[in-house]
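Predict structure. Chain length: 140.
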Amino acid sequence: MFPFEVHHDVPCFGYLINHLAAGRILFLIDTYLCEYTFPDLNHIIIEANYADDILEENILKGLEHPNKRDRLLTSHMELKTTKAVLMAQDLSGVQNIILTHLSDRNSDEERFVDEIKALTGKPVYAAKAGLSIDLTKKPF
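Prediction complete.
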C-alpha cells in the first residue's frame, strides 16, 4: 500500500493498494482534486461528493447555507473534477469504478453513476451499505 497526500481542509491521504488477488486499487476520497496519474489500475474507488448545479440550486432554495460552497471547494470532489481525474488515468485495465462519499443533499446517485459510466465505458457503482462487488483481478 502506498499512501499519498491529498488536498482537503485537514490532512488526509489517498492510497494506491497493490493486492495479489485484486490488483491495483486507487482509493481516493476526502480531497477536492488529484494531480497524480496511476498506471495499471484495476479498480478505482473515488469520491464524487456533489454537483455544483445541485449545490447551487439548494443554496437558492435555502436548503444549504451559501458558506457551504466555500468549504466544499477546498475539501470535497465535485462531479466534474471526479470526471477529470478519471479521464487523466489509463482506464484500459480498470474493471470497476466505485463512487463514494456522495452528499445526501448535493448529489444524485443515479445521475452520477450514469454520467461516469457514459464517460468511461466501465462498470460504475455508488458505494452504499450492502453493496457487493467482485474485486478479483481478471484474468486471474
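Summary: The first helix runs from residue 52 to 60.
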